[in-house]
Amino acid sequence: MKIDNSGNLIWAKTIGGNDTDFLNVFKQTSDGGFLLGGYSSSFSATGFHDFLIVKTNSLGQYQWSKTYGGPRDDILNDIKIINDNLILLAGYSYSFGAGATDNLIVCINSVGNALGSYTYGSATGEYPQKMILVNKGPYAGKVLLVGITLATGLNSINFLFLNTDGTYAGPSYVFTTPGTELVATSVVQDDSSGLFVLGGYTTFGGLPQGVTMTVFPDGSAISGNRHSSMSYIKSLAKSLDGNYLFAGVASMVSDDIGVLKSILPSLGVDCCSSSYLVPIAPAPLALLSSSVGALTVLTPIPPDISELDITGSITDTDITGSINFNAVCPEY
Predict the structure, then answer these.
(1) Which one, of 112, 61, 65, lies nearest residue 316 by Cα?
(2) 100-120 tens-digit pLDDT
(3) Which of 91, 108, 156, 241 is buried deepest, with most CB atoms within 10 A?
(4) What is the pTM of this model?
(5) Are both 301 and 281 inside the same structural domain?
(6) Which structural domain range is residue 19 located in?
C-alpha cells in the first residue's frame, strides 16, 4: 500500500497466487515503479518456497514476476539495485550449499532474467539480513552482505564483501560476543567517517537486549552498547541532524515500538531516546571479537537454480476501498 506523508491511504493492492506468498522487502526503481521481494510456494512444483520477485509501476500495477529456487525452501530477505540492469537478491537456501542453510545470492537484470547465482556458507548455517553498496574505505564499490552465521556455535554477525555481480570479493568477518548470541538486523555506512553502523540484539541475563554497534571501514574492529529497555532493534536510519535513529521493540512497555536516537562515533551516549519517551540507559557491549574466513568462499550454482516466469499466473487485486485506517499508537 502507498500512503501520503500524513498517513492517508493513496492506494493498496494484493499480489499473489493460490498458496503462501510473503513480502520481505521492496525497492523503488529508476522508472518510479517498485521491485517487491519475498518468497512463495504458490508456483513451486515441489511445494517448498522459492525466491519471489514482482515488478510494479508507480501506481502499484502489476508488470511482471519471477521465482528462483531449488528442490527445497529458498527464502529471499533483501534486494540491492546496483544499476538499472544489475540487481542482487539475497536470501538463505536449504536447496544448495555446504550446510543446513547458506547465503544464496541471485544476480538478475532489469526484466528478472538470472545472470548468476552463488552460495556462501559454513556447515552449520547462515542467514543474510541486509546488503549495502560500500561508498568509502578499502572496500568502496563492493557490496557488503551482513547476516547471521552459526559457524561459531552461536548466532554471530557475519560481514561478507561481494562484487556487484554477486561473486566473492572478500574478506569474510565474523563478530561474536563470548557466551551469547550477537545479531545485526540492519546496517548503513556513515558518509563522513566510513564506519559501518549496525542495529541488532544480543542476549544478556537470559533476556534479549537491543544493541547499537560500529565497525571500522576495514572490518578490523567492532564496538557497541547494549540498551536494556530495547528488546530488539529492527531498523535504523540517519536523521536530518546527522545522528542515527534505531527502531524496534521496547521491553519496558509491553513490547511497544521503541525508538532510540544516538550519536557517533561510539554510539555510547544518547543525545535523546524514547520508547515513546521511556529513558534508555546504554551499557558497553563487552569483549567483541572478529575472525576471518569462517565461510566457504564460493559455490557457483547457475546450472541448478530454477527460474520460472509467472507473469501470467499471478493475481493482482486493487483493495484500496476495502482498507480501514485508524489513528492508534498512544505515546507513553
Answers:
(1) 61
(2) 898 999 999 999 998 888 888
(3) 91
(4) 0.85
(5) no
(6) 1-136+161-171+296-322
